[in-house]
Write a structure and sequence with these properties.
This protein is an alpha/beta fold and 231 residues long. It has one domain: Rossmann fold (3-Layer(aba) Sandwich), CATH 3.40.50.1820. The protein contains 6 helices and 8 strands; from the N terminus they run E-E-E-H-E-H-H-E-H-E-E-H-E-H. The protein has an 8-stranded mixed sheet with strand order 1-2-4-3-5-6-7-8, with helices on both faces. Strand 1 and strand 2 form a beta hairpin. Helix 3 packs across helix 4. The protein is globular and about 45 Å long. The two termini are 21 Å apart.
Amino acid sequence: MSETLTIDTPDGAFSAYVARPSVEPAPAIVVIQEIFGVNKVMRDVCDNLAAQGFVAICPDLFWRIEPGIDITDQSEAEWKRAFELYNAFDVEAGVSDIAATIAAARALPAVNGKVGAVGYCLGGLLAFLTAARTDSDATVAYYGVGIEKHVGEADKLARPLLMHIAEEDQFVPKEAQKVILGALKDHLQIEVQTYPGCDHAFARVGGEHYDASAAGRANARTLSFFKSKLG
């Protein structure tokens, strides 16, 4: 079952797609979007999490630029628009909106009080910052872009974080991966999984670099992580 949730902030209100499980109350997971908005890929992630017993909530983080962005990775024009949105996006405001979404999730009668987060691409960076800056109970970052610039924030991280890194990520070069792994691999709260031969967005169903085997491994690890930390 899906519905729309409105989240109020001092800057205004924005919407979130919500997929609910068959049994409630349940833990919640905030799904943090890629650069394509709250599109079918993100809604499907939510629906799949709901089928596994979680309340899944995907907030519209582009609302300050343009509400309701819903595009794909299937055309040059959509990629151009996606990068325009990425370049216009305010990361600090985005993390604030995620914190507001976590707070709204905790207040829902359908949620048992536990709230985690998972993010992809741009959302992978935001997931890392969410783990460091908010009270998310457990967080997962898929192929986050730009994390190497923020590794110092791991000092603030007090709850579990699982990171999936594509070893051939065109947007996270080897030097950046070296910085990330060097800074984070021994952190007591962080688990890092790397995927040899995989490019960026290897878990995006229908994407150019989708790798069913690697995506299956990553998603199984994510599900096990959330069941362990939010159960």
